[in-house]
Design goal:
Layout: H1 17-36, E1 40-41, E2 47-49, H2 50-53, H3 58-63, E3 67-69, H4 74-77, H5 101-108, E4 109-113, H6 118-127, E5 136-145, E6 157-166, H7 172-188, E7 192-198, H8 199-208, H9 215-222, H10 230-239, H11 244-255, H12 262-272, H13 277-294, E8 301-304, E9 318-324, E10 333-338, E11 352-358, H14 359-368, E12 382-384, H15 389-404, E13 409-411, H16 418-427, E14 432-435, H17 438-443, E15 446-450, E16 456-459, H18 461-469
Parallel strand pairs: 1-5, 7-8, 12-13, 12-14
Antiparallel strand pairs: 2-4, 3-4, 5-6, 6-11, 7-9, 9-10, 10-11, 14-15, 15-16
Helix pairs in contact: 1-7, 1-14, 7-13, 8-13, 10-11
This protein binds one RNA strand of 77 nucleotides through helix 3, strand 6, strand 11, helix 14 and helix 16.
Length: 470
RNA sequence: GUGGUCGUAGCUCAGUUGGUUAGAGCGUCAGAUUGUGGAUCUGAAGGUCGUGGGUUCGAGCCCCAUCUUCCACCCCA
């Protein structure tokens, strides 16, 4: 026993072989679908400059950024450590006591771990704009980090699988993203619901009720409709400073928040948002998208949910969220359109839209519903039992030959007791073992043992290969 | 960040009102059994009871702090 117990940071996890096999199954499924729709892979660094990250996710997002401490003795360099103990600071000419977190921050950290894949992607697009073929369809599967407090379906390190297309306004892209989600979840055997909304509709509602500047506050609160209820929403809006008249004007929308029938809610919105051109534009977009989707065979349902606000601050148009059926879990996939994310980095007028699959939540949902196929545990097909040095030498070329034929094979690395070696095969669920001792070597034959039935037979290498190939 | 919750052997968990040397099952290792496994039997190893303080003659048990787990809020995949 070591002196101190090792551990890993809060909200992070190790993945053991069984978990990895299952996670790879999810990643492979997703990756295949992305490629099927013509998307290309990229990767970006785990860390970005804080200037890239800060201010893109809202105030809350900034707090959840993992920041990386500068290397070197930055205290010494800033003159914060004085010989006489006076510890005066050169930062903005302020005293130690006047220093707060925000003032200090830029001096001790300038890098952070990525918070999502969309913002680094926008940065990437701007930096590589001359080599990119637009519209650029890319996918990216990498971990992201958030300094959140862990809970159900929430980790501090988790994988996102992003697909985005940038450089095209077409709503065809939105339609395609829904199709991608459909294909991924259908292939994984997951039942799902796609929820759609549009920031322009939300903006229109804010405008119509007389709170044009309150869109963000409104949407965040509206999003709680599903979890809580109307009274809660009204109370919270009042706390956020919405006028009574505005809240009264909002009431009809709240009443329709639960309405899922497009034939009912679309006409309702058209009437009630007629005074807002932006709101009407949003309705129009939703109508076009759902119009296309009607003709496609999707395995899940698609709904317009005007209480859906999810997504980060940079979304400007369509908002997409996918929830798993039959399991209480946050969204397992989400995204939307962002009209000017690259604008912040100096490339104006380029619109993008994308969604992100939460691999870890998908894993949790599939685990809970027992949706992982049994077969994917298979690794080694045949184990060569080790009887000693002479036998090892005899077996190695045979092993190579098997591997050449694409049969995963291994030899036990020590001439341990047979019991131990067979036990190893059992525990690793290796279906066959090969026993080669003096007799077999003399005859140039192999004894193949079926670990399930216990049956064993003397055969040639070719016969073994034939049997393994099945 | 706020509120609650959990932590005893590798794993799952007992542990009485605060009382001598902290237990069980599973797993591991060794042997019964030196080329035939999954079974059975025998034996062994394995613990600063999350960590640090405190109360007490005495703490796994009570108090405080801290870390971790899980859950809710905020927010989000």
């Amino acid at each position: 026993m070591s002196l101190q117990k090792p551990s890993i940071p809060k909200g992070t996890r190790d993945f053991s072989p069984l978990e990895m096999v299952r996670r790879n199954y999810i990643f492979d499924t997703i990756r295949k679908v992305f490629q099927l729709f013509g998307y290309q892979p990229i990767e970006t660094p785990a860390m970005e400059n804080l200037s890239t990250l800060l201010g893109k996710y809202g105030e809350e997002g900034d707090k959840l950024l993992f920041k990386i401490l500068n290397s070197g003795d930055f205290l010494e360099n800033r003159g914060w450590r004085m010989e006489d103990g006076s510890r005066r600071s050169e930062v903005g000419g302020r005293n130690e006591e006047q220093l707060d977190y925000r003032t200090l921050l830029p001096f001790i950290t300038e890098k952070g771990l990525r918070y999502d894949l969309t913002v680094p992607f926008a940065r990437y697009v701007v930096q590589h704009q001359n080599e990119i073929i637009f519209p650029f369809k890319r996918y990216q599967i990498q971990p992201v980090w958030r300094a959140d407090r862990p809970q159900k379906g929430r980790y501090r390190e988790f994988f996102q699988c992003d697909v985005d297309v940038i450089g095209s306004d077409s709503l065809l892209n939105e339609v395609e993203l829904v199709q991608i989600a459909d294909k991924v979840f259908t292939n994984l055997g997951l039942k799902y619901i796609v929820k759609l909304n549009n920031r322009k509709i939300l903006s229109g509602i804010a405008e119509v009720i007389g709170e044009p500047g309150g869109m963000i506050d409104l949407t965040i609160t509206l999003d709680k409709m599903e979890k809580t209820h109307m009274d809660f929403v009204i109370t919270e809006l009042r706390e956020k400073g919405f006028a009574d008249a505005s809240i009264d004007a909002l009431a009809p929308f709240l009443n329709f928040a639960a309405e899922k029938d497009l034939a009912v809610i679309l006409p309702f919105l058209k009437v009630n948002l007629h005074a807002s051109s932006i709101g009407l534009a949003g309705i129009d977009e939703i109508e076009k998208i759902t119009g296309y989707l009607q003709d496609l065979q999707l395995s899940g349902s698609v709904e317009l949910d005007i209480s859906l606000a999810r997504g980060l601050n940079y979304y400007t148009g369509t908002i997409i969220e996918v929830k798993a059926k039959d399991v209480p879990m946050g969204s397992i996939c989400g995204g939307g359109r962002y009209d000017d994310l690259t604008g912040i980095f100096g490339l104006k007028g380029v619109s993008g839209v994308g969604i992100s699959f939460g691999a870890d939540r998908i894993y949790d949902v599939m685990n809970e519903l027992n949706l992982f196929p049994e077969m994917i545990a298979a690794t080694t097909k045949v184990l060569f039992v080790n009887f000693g040095a002479a036998e090892e030498k005899f077996c190695l070329p045979i092993l190579s030959s098997l591997r050449e034929s694409g049969i995963p094979a291994e030899i036990f690395p020590e001439a341990a007791k047979l019991k131990k070696q067979l036990d190893y095969a059992n525990r690793k669920k290796i279906p066959y073992t090969v026993l080669v001792g003096e007799n077999e070597m003399k005859e140039g034959m192999l004894t193949l043992k079926d670990m399930q039935t216990g049956e064993q037979k003397l055969m040639t290498l070719e016969q073994v290969k034939e049997k393994m190939a099945k």
